[in-house]
Specification:
alpha+beta, 19% helix, 3 helices, five-stranded antiparallel sheet, 232 residues, 9 strands, Immunoglobulin-like, four-stranded antiparallel sheet, single chain
């Protein structure tokens, strides 16, 4: 009959039997037993994460949404401010008259006017100005001139456009200047200049700019127009 010590030794020998060849723990098909996944396999792998995992909760959502909305609003505001159509102006900057008399006589033969128009573009984007037309009159139209070539004015700047016209006096239907320069005591007269300009902004027609101004001239030597001491 086996003693208690022999029985314990027999039981221990039974527990330490050799493993069966088929009794092998299977490896993980994803990590291959390494515990990590290769970077190349991460795009094709699927992970099961509990819904209670804190990593699934978005962080600072309100802050990120608020910052994104503020940035979009700022960009739109800047674009609207820069592209918003502003008024353009045109004004008579200079009008100079030059008189021509017949040889060895005081008979006025013609009067030529050199006119400078100044166009102001108050927009931040360049604008195109065309069909520039100037009409000079005194109770009735006397003469007109036009600028055929379009003018492009950069944003927040100005350009000067020149226009030249000649009024023949002798044997014409404009006896007013001849009468003033030959018979008036002060040899002074005033003329009205009416200007119209078509303009385009951002490739769209923006309308017509008009301006009405008047200048006083004195017959004789070349003289620049002035409003001082001139009755109209």
């Amino acid at each position: 009959m086996a003693t208690g010590r022999e029985s314990l030794a027999s039981a221990t020998s039974i527990l330490h039997f050799a493993p069966h060849p088929d009794d092998v723990r299977p490896e993980c098909p994803t990590c291959k037993g390494r515990g990590t996944v290769d970077a190349g396999d991460r795009s094709s792998s699927i992970a099961l994460i509990s819904l209670r995992d804190k990593r699934l909760k978005p962080k600072r959502t309100k802050l990120r949404v608020g910052v994104s909305v503020a940035i979009c609003f700022a960009i739109i505001s800047v674009l609207v401010f820069l592209l918003f159509e502003r008024t353009s102006l045109v004004e008579l900057n200079r009008a100079e008259a030059e008189y021509e008399f017949d040889d060895n006589s005081t008979i006025l033969s013609s009067v030529s006017f050199d006119i400078d128009l100044k166009i102001y573009n108050k927009n931040y984007i360049s604008a195109k100005y065309h069909d520039i037309f100037v009409q000079m009159s005194h109770y009735m139209p006397l003469a007109n001139c036009s600028v055929n070539n379009p003018v492009v004015v950069p944003g927040r700047s100005q350009e000067t456009v020149n226009c030249h016209l000649v009024i023949p006096i002798a044997n014409t239907s404009h006896p007013y200047l001849e009468y003033v320069c030959q018979t008036a005591a002060d040899h002074q007269y005033s003329l009205i200049f009416e200007t119209s300009v078509q303009w385009q902004y951002l490739s769209f027609s923006a309308g017509t700019i008009t301006d009405t101004d008047w200048r006083c001239f004195i017959c004789g030597a070349p003289h620049s127009g002035s409003k001082q001491n001139c009755t109209h």
